[in-house]
């Protein structure tokens, strides 16, 4: 329960590009891919800060771009769970292809539900933890944006998956003030 409710462990807005512009963009990642994190560790990057930047390296939305680094521990757990589910999905697809020759009807009816149920418990806890944390991070982000530390210029918020949920809760909190 402490994972789902409590103070935010990590919240930082970091620079993606050093240019100056009348318009800036803030990007919010939805999870951290395990492969990306380990690749960065091989390149002697000792933290997951660059994992947040790595996902957005080809985005050219504005000359001045920032990324929100938040709750990397929980986003890494979610990334691991999603990688595991993808590997299970691939193995089930291979099994399905091999089973097309014998007992196709019976095995097809049973194999998918069993695989999905076995994966559901792996994803459930990290997903629920990250959902709860995203709502809290959204409120923190609303406070940061309302403080006008970026000035009175327009800012575009871009996010995927749980990053979009962070943005949604940020906008909800901003609309209430």
From TrEMBL:
Main subcellular localisation: membrane
Keyword Membrane in record: yes
Keyword vocabulary terms for this entry: Membrane, Transmembrane, Transmembrane helix
Domain of life: Eukaryota
Membrane topology: Multi-pass membrane protein
Gene Ontology CC: membrane
Entry annotated with the keyword Chaperone: no
Protein's cellular compartments: Membrane
Membrane-traversing stretches: 78-96, 102-123
PANTHER family in UniProt: TRANSMEMBRANE AND COILED-COIL DOMAIN-CONTAINING PROTEIN 4 (PTHR17920:SF3), TRANSMEMBRANE AND COILED-COIL DOMAIN-CONTAINING PROTEIN 4 TMCO4 (PTHR17920)
Protein name according to UniProt: DUF726 domain-containing protein
């Amino acid at each position: 329960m402490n994972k789902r409710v409590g103070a935010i462990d990590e919240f930082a807005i970091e620079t993606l590009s050093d240019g100056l512009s009348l318009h800036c963009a803030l990007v919010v990642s939805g999870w951290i891919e395990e492969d990306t994190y380990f690749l960065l560790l091989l390149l002697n990057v000792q933290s997951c800060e660059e994992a947040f930047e790595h996902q957005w390296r080809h985005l050219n939305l504005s000359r001045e771009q920032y990324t929100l680094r938040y709750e990397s521990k929980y986003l890494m757990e979610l990334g691991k769970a999603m990688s595991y589910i993808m590997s299970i999905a691939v193995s089930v697809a291979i099994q399905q292809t091999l089973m097309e020759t014998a007992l196709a009807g019976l095995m097809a009816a049973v194999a998918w539900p069993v695989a999905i149920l076995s994966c559901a418990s792996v994803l459930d806890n990290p997903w629920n933890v990250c959902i709860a944390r995203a709502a809290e991070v959204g409120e923190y982000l609303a406070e940061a944006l309302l403080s006008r530390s970026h000035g009175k210029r327009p800012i575009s918020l871009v996010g995927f998956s749980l990053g979009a949920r962070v943005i949604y809760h940020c906008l909800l909190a901003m609309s209430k003030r």
